[in-house]
Alpha-1,3/1,6-mannosyltransferase ALG2
Amino acid sequence: MTPSDDTKYTNEASKKTIVFLHPDLGIGGAERLVVDAAVGLQQRGHRVIAVLTGELRGLKPDVFFVDQLSAGLPLLKLLTGKPIFFYCHFPDLLLVQNRRSLLKRLYRLPFDKWEEWSMGWADTIAVNSGFTAGVVGQTWPRLVRQKKLEVVYPCIDTASIPASEGEENPWPGVKFLLSLNRFERKKNVALALRAFAALSPDVRKNAKLVIAGGYDPRVRENVAHHEELATLATELGLSHTTVYRPSTPTDVPLSSISPDVLFLCSVSTDKLKDLLLRHSLLLLYTPSNEHFGIVPLESMLRRTPVLACNDGGPTETVVDGETGWLRDAGDVRAWRGVVESVLGMSESEVKGMGRRGEERVRERFGRGVLGSLSASSLGPGLRRLVVIFP
């Protein structure tokens, strides 16, 4: 990779080598954060290495970057004696489901205690949002008294997004609202349906609701929840249709005569996702208590305002009244009010809010910002940092 202009802040003497430790190179937000952090550091001129666990010898790292699972930190510290930077996306013990049975709670007890104890071996602990920092503090108050938490926000690649203006809209003349989430119950997509259905018929006839997101027919919850949402739409008096694995704009039947609601199960190309975000009038981001939430940033970068819940990570990314709106997840009337207001806004008002959103993302959530924060959090004297994918 060719170093960006950020390298002017890093002279040869201060360039460092960084080792990243990551338990699984998958496709989720946690993996994206680690890759973006590595790229951001590389763009500042540092040497970044991603290796398998068996390749530690000979690297002579200054710092280890570990995320998600802290279980191996004590052994890593004892074997190498090197500083450890641990990135906590969310306490693992709070992600475990079905804790109601006594047997399950007893089984999890040693793992939960080990998570807190092993995390204490890190020299620096960072979290992905102020919301997560608060949860970590409530979960492990003793740990937080011993270790200061640093907030290092995830980021998106702002350089690869082309300018919004001048691109042809594949659905001209259609005002549509967008919900972009996996088909999972915890994403609370039903809120978007209820807010849309609460609009008066005169207002709603000029708009459509697109519900798009990750969908795998092999995942029972994805299939069941799509059926639940389709049933709810019918109960609310909304016409609807479903398209599976759309890949181009022609696969998306958006027009003045199309149904009220369009379900897009598994948008299969980044280009189509980009077009949906870019040309929607408003993003309805319905998850409550989201740890961070990357989709609002993707929407604002494309100059599309966001309506999100007034809790969790979006309260740190969306500025109410400037780049979007924050409303209570339990107040359908409040969500309807925002949607109705947006549908009645002038084009200049919508564009103004969109520009402010794009500026905020570029200034605060770009890779260069993440690389700078990561470098400062890793401490002085850093020359070699290695990321490991076991």
Remarks:
- The domain at 5-155+367-388 is CATH 3.40.50.2000 (Rossmann fold).
